[in-house]
Amino acid sequence: MEDVLDVYELPYNPKIPVVCMDEKPYQLLGEARDSWAMRPGDNKKLDSEYVRNGTCSIFAFVEPLAGVHHVSVREHRTALDWAEEIRYLVDVMYPDAEKIILVMDNLNTHKPASLYKRFEPAEARRILRKLEIHYTPKHGSWLDIAEIELNVMTRQCLSRRIDSIETLKTELTAWERERNNLEAKVNWHFRTKDARVKLVSLYPEL
Question: Which tens digits make up the pLDDT trace of 174-202?
Answer without folding.
Answer: 999 999 999 999 889 999 999 999 999 88
